[in-house]
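Internal QA ticket QA-208
Title: Verify multi-chain structure generation after dependency bump
Assignee: T.L.

Test input:
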Amino acid sequence: MKVSAVRQALLLLALAFVPAIGEAIYFRNKVSWQSPIPASELVTVEQARSWGDNVIWVDARPDNEFERDHIPGAVSLNEDRWNELLPQFLGQWSPEKKVIVYCSAQSCNASREVAKRLRDEAQLKNVFVLDGGWEEWLKSKR
Amino acid sequence: MNTDFLKLIGIAALTALAQGARAELKWEQTSVDLKPALGDKQAVAHFKYENIGKTPVHFKSVHASCGCTAAQTQNEKVGPGEKGEVTATFNIGGRTGTQVKTVTVQTDDPDPSHATTMLTLKAVITPLLEIQPTLVFWQSGEEPKPKIITAKANKDAAIKKLDVTSSVPDFTAKVDAGSAPNEFRISVQPRDTSRAVYATLTIKPDSPVNTASTFPAAARVMPPAPTPATASTPATKSTLSTIRRDPAIPAATAASPGH
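Actual output:
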């Protein structure tokens, strides 16, 4: 009886592997829309606040969301108008300050993309992504 | 053992059949790969579907993951046997590289596992010009040696030369050929580093593909700071080219120590 149950369990497990392997092969070249981000490049709202004035906030959300509201003093830099907005940001950048990029929420990817471009293309150091984004900032104010 | 195995296969087959019968909206593809041409402003994906069920399907919502993507259906109601498509228009803006955007489609399918479908648009955007670094800067009082910006042109863009203009006359820029084909070296130099100054560098390739494109970079002499910062690599050699002041670009402001 016991042996039969184990056999059945193993058989079910083996059957479950068939579609899993198929999916793994089918999606092998598909990239995730959420690029992974090392923990060292993420900051919480609490950490960011502890840095005080030593921070340049970068708002990676679309223009209309930035216009509606944003973190005080934040600079708008989104990929919709990257070429127009980048010079404005670079004019305010300072090597002594940390750059924190944020977008709408945990699920958005814009802050990661903007932070990556600032590191790779502008070769800036101390560029971080705000964990939880604007949504988390708002929660911390309540 | 054989009986058990057959039972299991039977259950799996019946489950699959039952699910197939319930699935009414059948998608031709839920993932589309796009390769927009150089200079394209948009990439459009078409996700085709067919109602293979016996009852009409109504779209409840079609929602894109990003404000940069607009998604819409042809009709709100899809009758049995009818075909249609969801169109997702991705506005490229200043994006480069691999971009993955999703569109979530919700229908009134009573089966919750089929009521929501995730459509994926993947676009690989190749830039006309890759500029690195987009910022060169000098500390206050640093020796005003030239610093190099490298511009790699897309080989399909047939770029033969670059024009670089500074928004202020405090910087000069010289362009010469880089070490690799389709590569340019832009040598930027401040006249002096005694005062804080900022310039937008407008880089214009002579590409026949997209004549309107310009690319930004910036050059700065920083205000005096408490801690020195690293600087980019100095230039080794370059040939002289002319720098014109672009009157369309507003004069840049000197950065204040408060920033």
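Spot checks passed. The interface with chain A takes residues 1, 4-5, 8, 12, 31, 65-68, 91, 93-95, 98, 100-102, 120, 122, 131-135, 137, 198, 200, 214-216, 218, 220, 222, 225-227, 229-230, 232, 252-253, 255, 259 of chain B (CB under 8 Å).
Status: verified.
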